[in-house]
Write a structure and sequence with these properties.
Elements: H1 2-89, H2 95-225, H3 234-237, H4 246-283, H5 295-304, H6 308-324, H7 338-369, H8 375-406, H9 420-453, H10 460-497, H11 511-575, H12 582-606, H13 618-737
Pfam families: KLRAQ, PPP1R21_C, PPP1R21_helical
Protein name: Protein phosphatase 1 regulatory subunit 21
GO molecular function: RNA binding
């Protein structure tokens, strides 16, 4: 039990470990993916920083260039402003200079226009770069937030797994402690088993020596006292009277009584069924009171009228079978002679069913050919025809098996004992088949009666007769069901108890040997009753002898008292004068005479052979000696009878001891086998304990290594996440500063 629980725990732990390992793999994969994503983001961030630096440098150079251009434009505007009044004054004189300044102005205008366009383009690029930088920064911030969330989730999962691993480790340690306690208890139990086996071996050895001595003594007594062994040959062994089992006989009588009640119910139902069927033929399809019925139905009615002479003997046969099962007999198939009578009565009833079956089928066909028969009624009649055939076939099958069961009591080689169980099983199957057929008949007869009641020509007499037939069929169905269930409930008991014979062989026992066995059983019963009477007589004789000795002692004491009293009276008479002692002497004489008469009467009742004189004489002594020797002879006779009874008891005890010796040998073998099994189980448990210890230690070491590796990976992930956070914070600060 403990090993099964340990295996269940190991399996659960292995499943949990596999689940945790799979989760760890998933987490590892997720961490690796996140590391790859973080590395990619780092590369993208570096590239963006480089591009941002380039753009910043370009922006710085452009702003510087713009400032230079702006200063130059201002200088040119100042020069233009100064040159305009001079041009007004020297308009006439400086045509050539005006042309030169006009060319310079156009050049400056073109250069300024180019610078303006370039400045505009740079402003657009700067704006686009700024927007792109803001967009990238927002994406990186959102990605950083998601990464922080995922890191927190991973950290929670890691914390949960760590906590679960710690709980699992603690649980495994507790299981390990429990297993150590169980192993110690098992070792203690194994030690106790070894001590008990040693004690059992010692007791077995002593018992073997004791029984061996008793067996040798019993064998010597058996070889000296037993003239021959009647169990050597099966034909002689079959004549031995079995042990009387009063409980078995009472149960068999009770079963036979129940079977008799069921058969009576079936007989009553069959009588009613056949009688009401005869009445129905007389009134349907043609009423005999109005018109003559067909010759077929007349012959059918005549046969049905004889049903009682075939059905009643079934009850009588079962009654005789029940009366043959008494408390004093041995009820087996070889001794149930009355079963043959019941089988013959059942055979005669089967002949009756075979005789009426063709007429019954023809009668149903005649009803179908009648103009009053509808299609539904014709269908019911066809079904009833098939049912009647099945009913006859079932009865034939049942009669076949019953006749087979009756063979052991009549024919020696009619049925092998090995076939008893199959025959009884087939009887139960036939009874169930009979019940099924009767259910179909009841169903179809009920439907037929319902259809006929709806006919316009249905008379009250027909309705009443149909109701009686249906009720008889229902009773027959119920009786068949009770018989089938009764036989099915007792078939195992029948198989186990309905056989008697020599144990050494499995051959068939002849009915003659079974009859002889019953005669021997009666003689043995009469002999036991005679022995009981003799024992009672001996007890009465011993009680009478004891009472006789008691009353003899009482008589002797009374005699001694009387002698003392007579002596005292005589001495008193001598001491007194003759004249003064006339009255007292007469009184004493009367007293002595009265006492003598009482003593004589008592001795005449208790001991007729004793003398009636008051003083002891020769004859009384001879009688006492004779009575003493007679009592001694009676005592020796009783002792001899007691010795004979003790010898018989000792012989029975020797047989019992021999049986006990055989049982002891068997118990010794079984104990040796149990010892082997126990030693094997102990070694197996020890091996399982060592393997479980090793497996637990291996699992603990593996789990500790796994936890260490997970802690390392988690620390690495934390460091990477911290670096990512630091880098993202630095980038955000740089972006903000920019």
């Amino acid at each position: 039990m403990a090993s099964a629980e340990l295996q269940g725990k190991y399996q659960k732990l292995a499943q949990e470990y596999s689940k945790l390992r799979a989760q760890n793999q998933v987490l590892k994969k997720g961490v690796v993916d996140e590391q790859a994503n973080s590395a990619a983001l780092k590369e993208q961030l570096k590239m963006k920083d480089q591009s941002l630096r380039k753009l910043q440098q370009e922006m710085d150079s452009l702003t510087f260039r713009n400032l230079q251009l702006a200063k130059r434009v201002e200088l040119l505007q100042d020069e233009l402003a100064l040159s305009e009044p001079r041009g007004k004054k020297n308009k006439k004189s400086g045509d050539s200079s005006s042309q030169l300044s006009q060319e310079q102005k156009s050049v400056f205008d073109e250069d300024l226009q180019k610078k303006i366009e370039e400045n505009e383009r740079l402003h657009i690029q700067f704006f686009e770069a700024d927007e792109q930088h803001k967009h990238v920064e927002a994406e990186l911030r959102s990605r950083l937030a998601t990464l922080e969330t995922e890191a927190a989730q991973h950290q929670a999962v890691v914390d949960g797994l760590t906590r679960k691993y710690m709980e699992t480790i603690e649980k495994l340690q507790n299981d390990k402690a429990k297993l150590e306690v169980i192993s110690q208890a098992l070792e203690k139990e194994a030690k106790e088993c070894r001590l008990r086996t040693e004690e059992c071996q010692l007791q077995l050895k002593n018992l073997h020596e004791d029984l061996s001595g008793r067996l040798e003594e019993s064998l010597s007594v058996i070889n000296e006292k037993v003239p021959f062994n009647d169990t050597k040959y099966s034909q002689y062994n079959a004549l031995n009277v079995p042990v009387h089992n009063r409980r078995h006989q009472l149960k068999m009588r009770d079963i036979a009584g129940q079977a008799l009640g069921f058969v009576r119910d079936l007989v009553t139902a069959l009588l009613n069924f056949h009688t009401y069927t005869e009445q129905r033929i007389q009134i349907f399809p043609v009423d005999s009171a109005i018109d003559t019925i067909s010759p077929l139905n007349q012959r059918f009615s005549q046969y049905l009228h004889e049903n009682a002479s075939y059905v009643r003997p079934l009850e009588e046969g079962m009654l005789h079978l029940f009366e043959s099962v008494t408390e004093d007999t041995v009820t087996v198939l070889e001794t149930t002679v009355k079963l043959k009578t019941f089988s013959e009565h059942l055979t005669s009833y089967i002949c009756f069913l075979r005789k009426i079956l063709p007429y019954q089928l023809k009668s149903l066909e005649e009803e179908c050919e009648s103009s009053l028969c509808t299609s539904a009624l014709r269908a019911r009649n066809l079904e009833l025809s098939q049912d009647m055939k099945k009913m006859t076939a079932v009865f034939e099958k049942l009669q076949t098996y019953v006749s087979l069961l009756a063979l052991p009591s009549t024919e020696p080689d009619g049925l092998l004992r090995t076939n008893y169980s199959s025959v009884l099983t087939n009887v139960g199957a036939a009874l169930h088949g009979f019940h099924d057929v009767m259910k179909d008949i009841s169903k179809h007869y009920s439907q037929k009666a319902t259809i006929e009641h709806e006919l316009p020509i249905a008379t009250q007499k027909l309705i009443t007769t149909n109701d009686c037939i249906v009720s008889s069929v229902v009773a027959l169905t119920n009786g068949a069901g009770k018989v089938a269930s009764f036989f099915s409930n007792n078939v195992d008991y029948f198989i186990a108890s309905l056989s008697y014979g020599p144990k050494a062989t499995s051959g068939f026992i002849s009915p003659l040997s079974a009859e002889c066995m019953l005669q021997y059983k009666k003689k043995a019963s009469a002999y036991m009753k005679a022995l009981r009477k003799v024992q009672q007589s001996l007890e009465k004789i011993s009680k009478l002898e004891q009472e006789k000795e008691h009353w003899m002692l009482e008589a002797q004491l009374a005699k001694i008292k009387l002698e003392k009293e007579n002596q005292r009276i005589a001495d008193k008479l001598k001491s007194t004068s003759p004249g003064q002692a006339v009255g007292p002497a007469q009184e004493n004489a009367s007293v002595v005479n009265a006492l003598g008469q009482e003593e004589a009467s008592a001795k005449a009742v208790l001991e007729p052979v004793h003398s009636t004189s008051l003083l002891p004489d020769v004859e009384s002594r001879e009688d006492l000696i004779k009575n003493h020797y007679m009592a001694r002879i009676v005592e020796l006779t009783s002792q001899l009878q007691l010795a004979d009874s003790k010898s018989v008891h000792f012989y029975a005890e020797c047989r019992a001891l021999s049986k006990r010796l055989a049982l002891a040998e068997k118990s010794k073998e079984t104990l040796a086998e149990e010892m082997k099994v126990a030693s094997q189980s102990i070694s197996r448990l020890q091996d399982e304990l060592t393997t479980t210890k090793r497996s637990y230690e291996d699992q603990l070491s593996m789990m500790s290594d796994h936890l260490c590796s997970m802690n390392e990976t988690l620390s690495k992930q934390r460091e990477e996440i911290d670096t990512l956070k630091m880098s993202s914070k630095g980038n955000s600060k740089k972006n903000k500063s920019r």
